[in-house]
Amino acid sequence: MKSKIKNYGYVILAFLVSGGLLLSSCKTNSNNKPSGPKPPSNPGGYDSSNQIASANLQDFLTLNGGATDNKGHIQGTNNGGTFVSGMLSGTQAWQGSSSSYSYIGYPGASTALQTMTSFTVSAWIKANQPSNNPNAIVTPGLGEQCFFQLVNDSAWQSNIHLGLTSFTSATGGTTLNTDTLQLKVILSNFASGVVWQNYYLTADLDTAVGKWTNVIVTYSSATSMLNVYENGVAVKINGPYTPPGGSVGLELYQNDPGSLTNSKGAAPYGGLQFKNATAVVVGGWAINTTPPLSFGGIQPWAGEYTGAIERVRIYNSALSATDANSLYILEKAGF
Fold first, then answer.
1. Cα 193 to Cα 253: distance, rounded to the nearest angstrom
2. What is the pLDDT of residue 168?
3. Which end of the chain is more exposed for a tag (fewer CB within 10 A), N or C?
4. Bigger pLDDT: 56 vs 168
5. pLDDT at 39
6. What DSSP assignment string belongs to 110-168?
7. Which domains occur in the chain, in start order?
8. 87 versus 7: which is more confidently predicted?
9. d(CA 283, CA 163)
10. CB neighbour list of residue 108: distance below 8 Å, 6 or more residues apart
11. Contact (Cβ atoms closer than 8 angstroms) between residue 174 and residue 168
């Protein structure tokens, strides 16, 4: 009889142990279920986008339902723009308008922005192909669409200008390209001895039409190199002395270098010196604001930005290629 009881005990014990393992297994599986975004695998050694060049980040405009600078240096005022669903679930982005002039103005740019000798501007944009303005009549949504300016309040051209121009194809034509946005970069340098005080450059952002795209533009005073990144990858820049198709990374000079190899021995562009950098405008032109934040008045070729924009970061240093890629990865993942 004792033997039977003992055997029954073993059966009960085995049942309890197996049941406990089953419950433990269920509990473990439940705890391991993902909850929320999965963090990236530490790109560039960073766990968060805010860790990247944190000492050099001057302004961070999330534009998540408002115009506040998360660094607290400048305060924006939204004029005519709306807010739509952002890149990440549960967030918002600023949306320009094709029926009226829309922008966010940040008058009173900080001293840190006014005295930058190097810089990085990063933004997430979602835009359709801009249309030409053949009749040269002021029409919102037509002509070059500007989405970022560091203003020069004494001239129509800003110290830093990022816009989108109508793009057909590399070989011309009249049909707007359905995949590629053309980024226009204008950079000014009023340092002593600089003859080419304004650089006019373009870069092609392929597969960017109608899609959230991270655009990063950097300039280093140490190397005089300008770089443009699309979704973390450097793209070719088209300039006054580049071959057809442009060049990845472009060294800038104080006057005509004659070629990419600087056959004329021009001095490097060096440290930037801005003029009257009194404001920042996002989603529009400083000449179109009310009141105007720069000189020149409304121009027919200057169309308002009709796309969406968010997460605008301004650094007083040039991010490295690794950091530009890490910033893209981490922001896309929501970290």
1. 11
2. 82
3. N
4. 56
5. 67
6. -HHHHT-SSEEEEEEEEBPPPBP-TT----TTBSEEEEEEE--TTSSS-SEEEEEE---
7. 58-169+176-214+225-323 (2.60.120.200)
8. 87
9. 9
10. 74, 75, 278, 279
11. yes
